[in-house]
Design brief:
This protein is mostly helical. It is 75% helix and 0% strand.
């Protein structure tokens, strides 16, 4: 685990060193580019949420929660009915 942490730490230091070696003008350009990309993705997500919630066809189905044990109990019950078992329920 310590080796992985050290490797990650080295990669972070390497990336930080490369960032600091860039001219200030280039750093500002990349910062603006990342901000614009983040803004576009955020707007797309908000538009997507708005479109899906504004759709009139959205209906919520409310039903009983079924679990794995319910499915096996139903299989067992249907199997018992098919075989004509005389088990009490």
């Amino acid at each position: 685990m310590k080796k992985i942490r050290d490797k990650i730490e080295r990669q972070i230091l390497h990336a930080d060193r490369k960032w600091k070696e860039l001219p200030a003008k280039r750093q500002r350009f990349f910062t603006k580019l990342f901000f614009v990309g983040y803004t576009v993705v955020t707007l797309l997500v908000l538009i997507s949420i708005f479109i899906t919630t504004a759709n009139d066809n959205n209906t919520m189905s409310i039903s009983h929660i079924t679990t794995i044990s319910d499915h096996t109990a139903m299989k067992r019950q249907s199997h018992d009915n098919k075989t004509g078992s005389t088990l009490k329920k």
